[in-house]
Amino acid sequence: MDIRDYGWDQIFEQRWTEKYKEPFKPGRIVADYGQMLRVVSESGEHLVNRPVKKPDNETQPAVGDWVALDFAQEVPTITGILDRKTKFSRAAAGQAVKEQIVAANVDTVFLIQSLNRDFNMKRLERYLIAGWESGAMPVVVLTKADCCENVAEKVMTVYDTAPGVDVHAISALTGQGIDGIRTYFKPGKTIALLGSSGVGKSTLANLLAGKELLKTQDIREDDSRGRHTTTHRELILLPGGGLLLDTPGMRALSLWAAESGMELMFGDIEEWIGQCRFSDCRHENEPGCAVREALQTGELELKRWESWLKLQKEIKHLEAKKEGKLRLHQKQWGKQIAKLQKEIYKGKI
After folding, report:
1. Residue 211, number of CB atoms within 10 A of its CB
2. pLDDT, tens digit (0-9, with 9 covering 90-100), for 66-112
3. Using CA atoms, how far apart are residues 146 and 129, in angstroms rounded to an integer?
């Protein structure tokens, strides 16, 4: 098996030689089954245990990661993870403050929405922000074009929101736009499919692969919403070259990091904020507020401003939770140090 087909390149080769030596071998995680991971290496495919999380290292392996494999035992073990080129992540669901890596080391992220009642620009804004933040190239793919009567209008809406981003309207049923999608798949390049449940990710994956690799289900007729089909993340090597990473549908995408993504998504708003007379302007009733002026003249759409405000509030809330978690860790670490010093003083150590 040639690991170059799976994306191994000079960047990873250099990182490997700087960090690892024999007898370890490089491998790439191609599927995540929870406590078990499927990894490919030069010697083939291996089913390995997920490494035990260490207190001093919160980095957990994800599909797309390149890892160091130790073949000393009958079942290979993962001993380390190479630094990632890119990562698409989100804030994990639930009360815990942690990052969930959705896809690692991808070159392009297909941000997928269907052209039925699932079409939602506010949701797409979030995906675009996370896509830019990942370091990969975001591409918007609008599926089920055969179900939409105003395809061109919706394509232009996306172009207006994200200028410079490629947008493709496709139909797996008629074949519309599929040839344009295929051009992104080149040997060694990884493309991740990201979107809500039922937008057609698995259908697109099967079409690109030329056979049914993933189960699919029809959308519900009463609300045009799809049924969840993909249950785990999986990296698929396509017959013509290139890799496709299919992911389970996400009901919600809570941003984990968004600084560069917000700047690219709302660069115009950032410019207007910089033109306000006062640096601490709240953009309410202050004199010389460039934002309020742009809203009054129509240069800035109210819904766009409201989207920015909502996302800023969410980001600040997450940052506060991150700081709280950091303070808790520092407090716990301080207690451990104090306990150790006390034991040393008593001569127990």
Report:
1. 7
2. 999 999 888 899 999 999 999 988 766 666 667 788 899 999 999 99
3. 28
For residue 38, list its beta bridge partners. 31, 47
Q: Tell me the pLDDT tens digit for each residue of 264-286.
A: 888 888 899 999 999 999 998 89
Question: Beta partners for 141?
Answer: 112, 168
* DSSP per-residue string spanning 40-101: EETTEEEEEEPPPPBTTB-----TT-EEEEE-SSSS-EEEEEPPPS-EEEEEPSSSS--EEE
Residue appearing with tokens 């080391």 = 105
Is residue 281 exposed (0-12), middle (13-18) or buried (19+ Cβ within 10 Å)? middle
For the chain, domains (ranges, CATH) are: 3-81 (2.40.50.140), 87-246 (3.40.50.300)
How many residues in total does the chain contain?
Answer: 349
Residues facing 37 on adjacent strands: 32, 48
* CA-based end-to-end distance of the chain: 52
DSSP string for residues in 231-253: -S-EEEE-TTS-EEEE----S--
Cα–Cα distance list, 269 to 108, 190, 259, 305, 348 (Å): 26, 33, 14, 8, 61
Distance CA 165, CA 110 (A): 11
Q: Which residues of 26-59 are buried (b: 16+ CB within 10 A; e: fewer)?
A: bbbbbbbeeeebbbbbeeeebebeebeeeeeeee
For residue 240, which of 158, 289, 330, 178 has the smallest C-alpha distance?
Answer: 178
The whole-angstrom separation of Cα 311 and Cα 256 is 11
Q: What is the pLDDT of residues 25-37, one digit of tens each?
A: 999 999 999 899 9
